[in-house]
């Protein structure tokens, strides 16, 4: 009895301490439980985002966030190696007059609406290839035949866009390329853009169709000109600019109708931004030019020198931000997205 009453007295005196310990334990338990809840809410909202499709802007492809859709989704792919093991170096090109579009489609069944991404690794860059075009179906076929396997060996995520000038007004390569950039960005937020002539076929797959921290010129040499750079500032044929680099120079000028000058104009824009043009080694940056006569509707632009003189004054208001056109159709064909546009006339 004596022991019980003294134990009761001790407990009574320390009642506040016991209460405090009890409250702290309950608090600790609540905190741990709610932490788990917050975590699971965060994971489920991230998972939901991968399913959400926007208004068509930047959502053509499946989400590339790497967040799993649900527990059954395989984990994010590992990055593709810096140097693709699939590269072959200089390849023998063929220009078989019997080649058909159907055959090229069959050879590229892994390409959907002009787009491809490696199945076993995450591509290092997402690249849009833009090809201005009018009445050069045979050249386009040869280019697609070589370009699809070439880009796949480079383990890129890519999509090919062909921008067709409707009607028979004078051709405007630069404006078509501006349109290609604007239209491709509606499909996906590509980080790199390759501005590509239809008649130039790359000979060596070490000539990587990726962007660098400076604008890149990929055509050092062509068979037709003894594989020599045409002149020091030559920036024509095939060039690679990041989304930001192209935006920074306000794209191409829209005012070059007919052959020549628009590529020199782009070089001036790049130089005005204090960017430096880079080129791959000459033994790699080699192209075969598919022979053709000058197209009617693409006569030499006699005004080009005059236009080049005013580039430093006009580049800010003549370019991407002033490119007006009417889209006539967008056809998602097996090997490329075909964008047909009315761009007006000179
Ligand atoms: C033209 C360029 C062309 C180059 C090479 C220059 O005179 O202005 O547009 O790419 O020649 O043919």
Structure characteristics:
2 domains; binds beta-D-glucopyranose; alpha/beta; Spore Coat Polysaccharide Biosynthesis Protein SpsA, Chain A; globular
Give the name of the CATH superfamily of the largest domain. Answer: Spore Coat Polysaccharide Biosynthesis Protein SpsA, Chain A
CATH architecture of the largest domain: Alpha-Beta Complex
As a percent range, the share of strand residues is 15-25%
Principal-axis shape: globular
InterPro entries: Galactosyl_T, Galactosyl_T_C, Galactosyl_T_N, Nucleotide-diphossugar_trans
Catalytic activity: N-acetyl-D-glucosamine + UDP-alpha-D-galactose = beta-D-galactosyl-(1->4)-N-acetyl-D-glucosamine + UDP + H(+)
Family: Belongs to the glycosyltransferase 7 family.
Biased composition (Basic and acidic residues): 52-62
Characterize the structure shown.
- This is Beta-1,4-galactosyltransferase.
- It holds the Pfam family Glyco_transf_7N.
- Responsible for the synthesis of complex-type N-linked oligosaccharides in many glycoproteins as well as the carbohydrate moieties of glycolipids.
- Strands 1, 2, 3, 4, 6, 8, 10 and 11 form an 8-stranded mixed beta sheet that branches. Strands 5-9-7 form a 3-stranded mixed beta sheet.
- By secondary structure, it is of the alpha/beta class.
- It folds into 2 domains: 70 residues; 242 residues, Spore Coat Polysaccharide Biosynthesis Protein SpsA, Chain A (Alpha-Beta Complex), CATH 3.90.550.10.
- It has 9 helices and 11 strands.
- About 10% of the residues have low confidence.
- The structure holds beta-D-glucopyranose.
- The site of beta-D-glucopyranose has 7 residues, from helix 7.
